[in-house]
Amino acid sequence: MSLQEIFWRPSAVTSVLVLLTLLFCRGSVSTPVIKVMSNDSSRVVLQCESAGWYPEPELLWLDGEGNLLSAGPTETLRGPDDLYTVSSRVTVEKRHSNNITCRVQQRNTNQSRETHIHVPGSAVRKEPSATFIIVIIGLLYVGAAIAFVWNFMLSKKPDTKVNETELKTMTQKRSRARGDDTENKEIKEEPPSEQLEDDTSAVDMSEVIKEGEENQETETQSTAQSALTSSEN
Ligand SMILES: *[C@@H]1O[C@H](CO)[C@@H](O)[C@H](O)[C@H]1NC(C)=O
Ligand SMILES: *[C@@H]1O[C@H](CO)[C@@H](O)[C@H](O)[C@H]1NC(C)=O
Ligand SMILES: *[C@@H]1O[C@H](CO)[C@@H](O)[C@H](O)[C@H]1NC(C)=O
């Protein structure tokens, strides 16, 4: 095996390149950059990228406790300078606050770079506190009590609707007994809805009211006459 043959063996070429990288390109690897690709209420999608590696490095995602996260496949790009750029995406649930690490490392050359990002936990996902639940239940009880008392008061109130027969009996009573002005007003102020519903009833009512007024007039006349006679006496 000649010296030329040894030199052109692929492994030898690689070894030389690694040696050259170690000697001259040390520190050319870029610190990983983490980008937030999407960020909603429940999860964030992060992307990590690092360039200038030789040979191809590995990319790892770690959580705050140093556990490996399952991420998407690592994409590798080889530039014209034979150096590698690696990138990978990971989806992180916002169940709790977490410090995520992107680590890019090359075991053979004993190089590693890492970047951290803080993912705050989502407030929406928090369990409602016990005090909040107690306050809500308390408000429901108060509301139910108010509704109960209100219904009770309404049921005690007499029915304001007076039907036709009741009206007639009232006027009959009134024509017999001495009517006063307040009673007369009450009849006039009957709900107009009943009058609109039925034309005949409306006529009846107006007649009834007229009767009442006439009665009232005659009564006042008679009382005036009696007063006159009494004064004469
Ligand atoms: C994340 O890191 C910051 C400091 O870099 C620290 O204050 C915080 O407690 C860490 N959070 C978690 C969940 O590890
Ligand atoms: C990598 O370097 C560290 C010091 O920076 C050393 O402790 C460790 O033994 C090295 N590992 C290898 C595999 O060379
Ligand atoms: C996601 O968005 C929220 C608010 O919109 C912000 O507080 C949080 O820092 C963002 N997360 C990341 C990882 O940038």
Automatic annotation (TrEMBL):
Entry's localization field: Membrane
Alphabetic keyword roster: Immunoglobulin domain, Membrane, Signal, Transmembrane, Transmembrane helix
Thylakoid found in the keyword field: no
Biological process, per Gene Ontology: regulation of cytokine production; T cell receptor signaling pathway
Protein name stated in the entry: Ig-like domain-containing protein
Transmembrane segments: 130-153
Domain Ig-like: 10-118
Biased composition, class Basic and acidic residues, residue ranges: 177-191
InterPro entries: BTN3A2-like_Ig-C, Ig-like_dom, Ig-like_dom_sf, Ig-like_fold, IgSF_BTN/MOG
SUPFAM superfamilies cross-referenced by the UniProt entry: Immunoglobulin (SSF48726)
Database matches in PROSITE patterns: IG_LIKE
Source species, domain of life: Eukaryota
